Structures are given as structure tokens and as C-alpha cells.
Amino acid sequence: MKTPYKNIYTILKTNRFIVLAVVIGSVLTCIISVLMVIKLHKETVNNAFVVNSDGSVIPLKLVSQQENLKVETLAQLELFHTYFYNIDASNYEKNLGKALWLGNSSVDALYRQKKADGVYNRLLQYSLVQKVLNVESKVNIQNEPYGFETKTIFEINRGSVTDTYELLTTGNLIKVDRNFPNNTHGLLLTNFFENTLKKIDNEN
Predict the structure, then answer these.
(1) pLDDT tens digits for 86-100?
(2) Cα–Cα distance for residue pair 81/73, rounded to 1 Å
(3) Whole-model pTM above 0.85?
(4) In the CATH scheme, what is the homologous superfamily, with its name and number, of domain 65-200?
């Protein structure tokens, strides 16, 4: 006798096929999603952004951290020495404030010593202009902390007289979290010390 209902085994087989298809589809979707997330993460890690002088954000491809490390250490040292020594009555507070973000307590101690010695008072009193002419650094990036030696040439304009000096400083650099815009290179000066200061005869 024929029945209008399908055989129970046929129905179960169909249901099992549907369940298997759904499970396989879900697994494939999860795998593809994970692969896409991993790919996106790698692309994000290999890209960084820098802030331009006008405030715009510029994407920068990181080819190799080791290749960029030397460039960044030299740039950090030039930035710090420019802020710390390129000062006059109108900008010294702003520049020194920026310089203090780039160094640890050794930089702060030197700043306080100069302040106690009346360096900045004389700057205001006599309207002196201290201008950095050149910053040249040597850095050992083989092991952290990275030791450095920097020669800074600057001049002091006293109105009718301009004297030129050569300052030799040493210290170390350590990696810290990047802080925009206070410490864009993510490097901090430690054990900072002014070694020698000598006057250079001006050539006419």
C-alpha cells in the first residue's frame, strides 16, 4: 500500500546533508574571517603614521625597524639639542618645555642647575640670542640603551658681539612609547651630561 509520506530514512538523510552543509559553510566562513583579520593586522603593523608640521597625518611604510632606528635616534638628538640650546628671550620657556619631554631626570637636573645659576635670567636681562648652527651625533645602536655623543655648534649674539661655541654632550637613549606630539620618535634621553664647552674663533 502506497503512502503519501516520504520514507523516514530519506528525510533523515536530507536533514543530515543540510546540517553538514551549514556546519561546513560556517567553518569556512570562520577560517576566511580569521585569515582576513591576520592579514589586516600584519598590514597595520607594517605601517605607521607621522604628523606633518601642518598637523596632517602622513602614512609611512616601515621597511625595517633596524634601518629606521639610526635615522630616528639622530633625529631625536638633533631635535632635543635644538630645543634645549636654540633659545632667546621670546621662546626659551616653550623650547625648554619641549626639550624636557625628550629626556629623563638627568635633563631636568641640568635645566634646574642652569636656572639656579641664572642662565635664563641673563638671557632675559641682556636680550641674548642663542642660536644652534649645527648638531652632529654619533650613536651606537647595537644594544639598548643606545650610547651617543653629540657635538653642537651654537652662537650667542650679545648685540654688537657674537661668540661661537662648541659643546660636547653624551648620554643614552632608551625606547619608550611614542607620544604625539611630545615625543614622536619614542626615544628618551638618559644620563645626559655636558662634557666640554669651548669657544671657537670666528673666521672672517
Answers:
(1) 999 999 999 999 999
(2) 12
(3) no
(4) VirB8 protein (3.10.450.230)
